[in-house]
Design a protein that fits this description.
This protein has helices at residues 15-24, 48-76, 98-118, 136-141, 145-152, 163-174; strands at 30-33, 80-85, 123-130, 185-188. It is of the alpha/beta class and 195 residues long. It has a single domain, classed as Rossmann fold, CATH 3.40.50. Strands 1-2-3-4 form a four-stranded parallel sheet, sandwiched between helices. α1 (15-24) packs parallel to α2 (48-76) and α2 packs parallel to α3. The model has no long low-confidence stretch (mean pLDDT 94).
């Protein structure tokens, strides 16, 4: 649908492969970090493998890809925007989400530090923090009606987010309409965090 866009398929946990592939791409003006995994386990059962995979994808990949892209933006003198897709889970504890909540909280703070340090280079950094989104991952983790009913009952708008709800928020944060917004988290949670 978008001519000129070339997808790069790679394992973001592979630091060297990511450096080579993303470093050879560009030039960049905008970046959306959306890759994530949700390894759901009770706190007492969290495995080292689940923790490592979550850290690799939910935090390390964002840091690394953002470094590569931001360095290119700075070298080219580009005013850019970066949006990191976080979660409402960064702000509220959810059962069986110890690792996911923790990595998303870390992502929010990483984004604030990025905003502070990249701001002088005219690069804005923000997060969108959605509730459950009806992606494949969302359907897998929230397909149990008992589990989903309990979550939906805490959302004042009474539903989970659709992909377009998140996409439209990202487009706003990438656009000049948010030219004075950086270091912020835009909640796309149907009011979950105020309930």
């Amino acid at each position: 649908q978008c001519p000129g866009i070339e997808p790069l398929c790679l394992d973001l946990a592979d630091w060297d492969a990511t450096e080579a592939a993303v470093g050879a791409a560009g030039p960049f003006e905008l970046l959306v970090n959306n890759a994530a995994v949700a390894e759901l386990q009770p706190f007492l059962e969290v495995t080292r493998a689940a923790l490592q995979r979550s850290l690799d994808v939910n935090l390390q990949a964002v840091l690394h890809v953002s470094q590569i892209v931001a360095r290119q933006m700075i070298a080219q003198g580009v005013s850019g925007a970066i949006v990191n897709v976080s979660s409402q889970a960064s702000q509220r504890a959810l059962r069986d989400h110890a690792v996911y909540c923790s990595t998303k909280s870390a992502l929010d703070m990483l984004s604030k530090v990025m905003a502070m340090e990249l701001g002088p280079h005219k690069i804005r950094v923000n997060t969108v923090n959605p509730t459950v989104v009806m992606t494949n991952m969302g359907r897998i983790n929230w397909s149990d009606p008992q589990k989903s009913a309990a979550m939906i009952s805490r959302i004042p708008l009474g539903k989970f987010a659709e992909v377009d709800d998140v996409v439209n928020s990202i487009l706003f944060l990438l656009s000049d309409k948010s030219a004075m917004t950086t270091g912020s988290s835009l909640m796309v949670d149907g009011g979950f965090l105020v309930s």
